[in-house]
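1st attempt posting a full record on here, be nice pls
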Amino acid sequence: MVNDLILYSLILIAIIAGNVVLFAYFSARYKSKSFLFAALATYLVVANIIAFRLVKVGPAIIPSAIIIYSLTFLISDFLSEKFGKKEAKQAIIAGFVLNILVVVVTYFITKLPYPEFAQTQAEIFSQVFSYTPRIVIGSLIAYIVSQHISIHLYHALKTKTKGKYMWLRNNLSTWTAQLFDTLLFITIAFYGILPFNVLQNMIFYHYLAKIIIAVLDTPFLYASTYIYDKFSISKQK
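the predicted structure (as tokens):
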């Protein structure tokens, strides 16, 4: 079971982060940031849809969405690196607004009447999209706050290091932002509902998983910037 967990997790990271490299190519090829904006928004929406599928990791239980959600920081780091702080913030806000739209639309769809023969499907749909208000609020607040922290710290480190050590600013900004993300989400969503020791365990294992993902996505940031630079120059020629 442990081997399967590691294998499938690595495959997911490779696929999802690999797509960021592909979007970097498209951005260079067509001279447009829209591919990356769409990717970030899509990753965020998918993360919230699959969040209810839980995964057992040793003594911990974490949401399956933790991989694709964590990789939204890879996209915002790439946008920060190649396009600047303003564009990265625009992508984050676009994802935030789109996520609210999905929550609102799916909520009202669950309230629509359904034919008797489709009762089972309707009930399953309602179970998947029956959002708990505290979880939704916690998720949205954690996302918008942590992403802004990540962007500002990324650029502060880039200035401090004079553009060197991209791996350092990628990891330090993401680790710091993900700490705030984890603390805000779990506190808002579950404080007063779960025992304090359970909350501590959730925070520890969630944050540990996010740190590991941030380290693993670093090569993909280098690959994305390399591909973007290479094809941007080729396009100019």
